[in-house]
Design a protein that fits this description.
Radius of gyration of chain C: 25 Å
Strand content of chain C: 5-15%
Largest sheet of chain C: 9 strands, mixed
Strand content of chain A: under 5%
Number of domains of chain C: 2
Low-confidence stretches of chain A: 276-280
CATH class of the largest domain in chain C: Alpha Beta
Largest interface: A-B, 116 and 117 residues
Chains: A mainly alpha (280), B mainly alpha (298), C alpha/beta (449)
CATH class of the largest domain in chain A: Mainly Alpha
Helix content of chain A: over 70%
Number of strands of chain A: 0
Low-confidence stretches of chain C: 1-14, 29-34
CATH superfamily of the largest domain in chain A: MetI-like
Structural class of chain C: alpha/beta
CATH topology of the largest domain in chain C: D-Maltodextrin-Binding Protein, domain 2
Structural class of chain A: mainly alpha
Number of strands of chain C: 9
Number of domains of chain A: 2
Number of helices of chain C: 16
Shape of chain C: globular
Order of helices and strands of chain A: HHHHHHHHHHH
Radius of gyration of chain A: 24 Å
Oligomer: heterotrimer
CATH architecture of the largest domain in chain A: Orthogonal Bundle
Order of helices and strands of chain C: HHEHEHEHHHEHEHHHEEEHHHEHH
Mean pLDDT of chain A: 85
Shape of chain A: flat
Number of helices of chain A: 11
Chain lengths: 280, 298, 449
């Protein structure tokens, strides 16, 4: 350090860059967190304090009243259970149906590849509201109306395009050589897939499952037209919230976001498990 | 010096001793096709036919009614404007965020988690939060008042510029995480060695981004673009919460015709507009970002 | 039928993959076998409960309170499900069309039920039994939704009033009785208040789900022109819309974001506003002594006001018919009707004395409603009768007028002419007679003169 002949400029530059980097990260994090902070603040405020101006930006009037009232409304826990069933069921079903499709897109050249992708996107590109009546009729005639299975099926059809396309994009980045090597060492095609390809593609699959779960968790319209007495949480509360006083809407928004955040926290480790697996 | 992503070799994985001559790809994509066709096929046909059929048969009345509605053209304009401005902005931000994460700052896992959180919020809840920020007596004006500045009527109907600006910020906040997560997942598969090799040979940051990272990310970017655009055509809850009828979007109009005006036919016509626009952009992305040197398959 | 989707695609199994597949199936078993989901509507579990689908009382608190009312006064178990009106319509329609009706009883506003009249059974026999209840003639006419038979039993009613924060009284022009406003007083007051407060303090529900079209249909135009449809573009209507434009210039511009006025009123953002009683009741809830509820203003042709009627209907092929009828009868009892008023601010449809011990906000409203209906020159306007599914499109015409005249500043007469053409296109296809306050004569077709 004391030898003046060493040029410390690159080192200083690097340190300065790290500081800029950190500042940028923190700024973005603050931008992302502020609305989340405000929704929590509003959900835990008294109804009166939401009517004041200027609004307090600090938690000065903490109250659990609105959240309590929201949580004690009829059927909220049944709906929570249904939402969990539907969310997990959708993640599983769309993985089972979607991952093979994604693998095929990445590994095989087959005629009709582009039409297949467009076919998948077709259902996602049409606003589902105009299908309300035909869809409900289909589910009523097949007798799966008002069950969680029905909602799982619908949500899977909405999630499949995401699952297939995202998994295809990550399978593409898994080198074929690796898979061939596994085959040479005696794995069957499925074995090579499960032992070699899957682990390398895990981040993408985790990303796809996050989208699927969150989509299913927040989907309102399909769930409300296909169920009556077995609703999911958003179908049960979001319609009621849109006409409720402001404090309730915040409480509902706040309560609904927590399970999704937990799911993301859980899946995140798979998403970033490869950071640093190569040279740092 | 473009680095190719690992080439796909169709012959490589074909099993030689399959008894029946059904290509494996069919087994792989078959279930999803069957599922979608069984579940959505008939409702889709019925839904789409509503747009051009009344009790007497084929008609263009509903399409004419749609086009003559005073909100139709503003809605088309706003939708196009929002997508053209938002998507590039969002992709720039998301790629920047992903690169920030990759350079391994302190607490990068925590940062990543925080940046993914907006994904968890439904668009209804997001609209609610941003309304409480931008409304006349909302958090932003409260904050400004704390600084001694007079509030600004951000959401006034006669100021299209701030309306657009507010919707844009809220949408960028809400949906950039989707792009980020796909890009991060894609980055996981790219060994840093390439980047570092390029660095050793003296490539600048921009050169490395342009010639190493982005080409390798192409499959992920393509998928993110397709999904993000399709979803952007579909969401309107934020815009509606913030602006009411003052910043109409095509999909919001679809809902208005279906729910408030109870006219499923015109709603279906509007839905068709969205369907066509989404499919055209998807085809564009699929072709424009096709992997070079891989025949016509992708 | 679901499990076939869970089978992994057959590509040549290995031991490991069989294991994985087995594990996957095991994990998904609880979701497949046991339950089709948890019950979320309370009483629905047992057979014999009445499935009651409604568009009313969707807010959390209102729903809880109404469930309590049902529990207290109705002897039959009722599963009360409140949904948005589009879900309501598509549920009823799809169940009827697929021949698999799971509902027993429907409740909704006139505008929710009218488009579904084809899927509803006639209820004339019930109305005959309930003849002693004293339904008003206008409401019974409305219940026919333009046909020869009645499609719903009136359930409850409401109207629109003006809520006034007493702070605004200091700008009330002198010599004006706040309980007997004229439209020009209302405008002068709005102007004075804007000047006095330094910002506009009058508001209106002009948001996407706001009911401002009912203001033009039932209040502004009847008061200025004496009609709603026939007088749509006559010189009086031009005066009315010119008035509206001037009034709008003195209103809170954020009004285009307001769906229900109670929130901006409670926040103090708005001090005086017209809205549906159920959408105003939250404003004075905390401090009733700070508030007034007054009748809507009167104009040259009288004090136009509109009724809101909610009805109970029986879906064709509905379950538990006998019990549903029992529910309807219980809901027509005076104690149930009064309790509904107390809890959720909807007024009785039957002839009954209102109690004197109503809670603050409701007492304010009850007095104002009485004053509005009994004041000299009161002019009843109905929401469009017999237009069925076109109700939304007819209302949209009035909203378009507001958009063009007040927001875009277009000249009044050309806008009215153009919208009148559109309105006539809709009305011609419907071929229905006019409704109050336009001259009602059966057999004629309603259209803009």
């Amino acid at each position: 350090m004391s030898t003046p002949t060493v040029d410390t400029a690159p080192l200083r530059r690097q340190r300065r860059n790290r500081i800029y980097l950190q500042i940028a990260c923190v700024t973005i994090s603050i931008f992302m967190l502020v609305p989340i902070y405000l929704i929590s603040l509003a959900a835990l405020s008294t109804r009166e304090s939401l009517n004041e101006f200027p609004l307090s930006l600090l938690p000065t009037n903490i109250s659990f009243d609105t959240l309590d009232a929201f949580l004690s409304s009829t059927g909220i826990f049944g709906a929570l259970g249904n939402s969990v069933i539907v969310g997990i069921g959708t993640v599983l079903l769309s993985a089972v149906l979607g991952i093979p499709g994604g693998y095929a897109l990445a590994r095989f050249a087959f005629p009709g590849k582009e039409p297949y992708q467009l076919f998948l996107l077709f259902t996602r590109a049409l606003p589902i509201v105009v299908l309300s009546v035909p869809l409900a009729k289909l589910f009523l005639t097949t007798n799966i109306y008002d069950t969680t299975y029905g909602v799982i099926l619908l949500h899977t059809s909405l999630a499949l395009p995401t699952t297939i396309l995202i998994s295809a994009s990550v399978f593409l980045s898994v080198p074929v050589d690796v898979e061939e090597a596994a085959r040479i060492f005696g794995c069957g095609p499925l074995g090579a897939f499960a032992r070699v390809v899957m682990p390398m593609a895990l981040p993408g699959l985790a990303a796809a499952s996050i989208f699927t779960f969150v989509m299913s968790w927040n989907e309102v319209l399909g769930a409300s037209i296909l169920t009556l007495d077995h609703r999911t949480l958003p179908a049960q509360v979001l319609t009621s919230l849109s006409d409720s006083p402001l404090a309730y809407r915040f409480a509902g928004g706040f309560a609904l976001v927590i399970p999704s955040i937990i799911f993301i926290a859980f899946m995140r480790r798979y998403l970033t498990n490869m950071w640093g697996s190569t040279i740092r | 010096m473009t680095v190719q992503s690992p080439p796909t070799r169709p012959a490589a994985v074909r099993s030689p001793h399959r008894p029946r001559r059904v290509p494996p790809a069919v087994w792989l994509i078959g279930p999803s096709i069957l599922f979608m066709a069984l579940l959505m096929g008939w409702p889709m046909v019925q839904g789409v036919l509503q747009a051009v059929q009344n009790e007497h048969g084929f008609t263009l009345d509903f399409i004419r009614q749609m086009v003559e509605d005073p909100y139709f053209w503003p809605a088309v304009r706003n939708t196009a404007l929002l997508i053209v401005v938002m998507i590039p902005l969002q992709f720039g931000i998301a790629i920047g965020m992903a690169l920030l994460l990759r350079s391994n700052p302190r607490l990068n896992k925590l940062h990543f988690f925080v940046w993914a959180i907006p994904l968890a919020l439904s668009d209804l809840a997001a609209g609610l939060v941003w309304l409480s920020i931008f409304n006349d007596r909302g958090y932003l004006n409260s904050f400004l008042k704390g600084l001694g500045i007079d509030g600004v009527p951000w959401l006034a109907y006669d100021n299209q510029a701030t309306l657009f600006f507010c919707v844009l910020i809220a949408e960028v906040w809400r949906s950039t995480s989707l792009v980020l997560v796909i890009v991060v997942a894609g980055l996981q598969g790219i060994p840093k060695d390439y980047d570092e090799a390029a660095q050793v040979f003296g490539a600048t940051f921009w050169q490395r981004l342009r010639h190493v990272t982005l080409p390798l990310l192409k499959p992920s970017l393509q998928v993110a673009l397709i999904l993000r655009t399709i979803l952007a055509f579909q969401t309107f809850a934020v815009a509606q919460a913030l602006t009411g009828q003052n910043f109409p979007l095509v999909v919001g109009e679809t809902y208005r015709w279906y729910t408030a005006l109870q006219n499923p036919n015109v709603a279906a016509a509007l839905a068709l507009v969205i369907l066509v626009a989404s499919m055209l952009t998807s085809i564009f992305y699929l072709r424009a970002l096709r992997e070079k040197g891989q025949g016509g398959t992708r | 039928m679901t499990d076939s989707y869970f089978r992994p695609p057959p590509i040549g199994p290995s031991r490991r993959s069989m294991l994985l597949a087995g594990l996957g199936t095991a994990l998904s078993l609880p979701f497949l076998s046991a339950c089709s989901g948890f019950d979320t509507s309370g009483a629905a579990a047992g057979a014999g409960s009445v499935g009651f689908l409604s568009t009313q009382f969707t807010p959390v608190e209102e729903k809880q309170r109404y469930e309590a009312v049902l529990k207290k006064f109705v002897k039959v178990p009722v599963a009360y499900n409140s949904v948005a009106n589009n879900v309501f319509a598509s549920t009823v329609q799809s169940q009827e069309e697929s021949g698999n009706v799971r509902l027993s009883l429907l409740g909704g506003l006139h505008g929710d039920l009218a488009p579904l009249s084809k899927s509803l059974d006639d209820v004339d026999y019930l109305l005959r039994d309930l003849a002693g209840s004293g339904f008003s003639k206008d409401i019974l006419e409305l219940a026919k939704v333009g046909g020869p038979t009645s499609k719903y039993v009136p359930w409850m009613q409401a109207t629109y009033l003006v809520a006034v924060n007493k702070k605004a009284l200091e700008w009330l022009p002198s010599g004006v009785d706040v309980n007997d406003l004229r439209y020009e007083d209302y405008l002068a007051w709005a102007k004075a208040a804007k000047k006095g407060a330094g910002r506009p303090v009058f508001g209106m529900p002009a948001g996407p789900k706001g009911l401002h079209h009912r203001f033009y249909q039932g209040f502004l135009l009847p008061s200025f022109t004496g009609g709603q449809i026939t007088t749509f573009r006559n010189p009086d209507a031009v005066t009315a819309w010119n008035y509206m434009r001037e009034l709008w210039d003195n209103m809170v511009p954020a009004s285009t974001n307001y769906d229900a006025m109670q929130e901006p009123l409670a926040r103090g953002e708005v001090l005086v506003a017209w809205d549906h009683v159920a959408r105003l009741v939250g404003a004075p809830a905390a401090k009733p002594e700070d508030w007034l509820m007054v009748p809507a203003p009167r104009g040259p042709k009288g004090r136009g006001y509109m009724l809101i009627v909610a009805g109970l209907a029986l879906p064709k092929g509905g379950l538990e018919r006998e019990r549903s009828e029992q529910v309807i009868r219980s809901l027509m009892e005076p104690p149930t009707q009064i309790e509904t008023l107390r809890k959720n601010a909807f007024f009785p449809v039957i002839q009954t004395e209102l109690p004197t011990d109503l809670a603050g906000a409701i007492a304010l409203e009850a007095a104002a409603v009485r004053r509005q209906q009994r004041s000299p020159g009161a002019l009843l306007a109905l929401p469009p009768v017999g237009v069925g599914a076109k109700d939304g499109e007819v209302s949209q015409i009035f909203k378009n007028c507001f958009q063009e005249i007040c927001l875009n500043g277009s000249p009044v007469q050309p806008v009215l002419d153009q919208q009148a053409t559109q309105l006539n296109t809709i009305l011609k296809a419907l071929a229905v007679p006019c409704w109050a306050p336009d001259p009602v004569s059966p057999g004629t077709k309603c259209e803009v003169a």
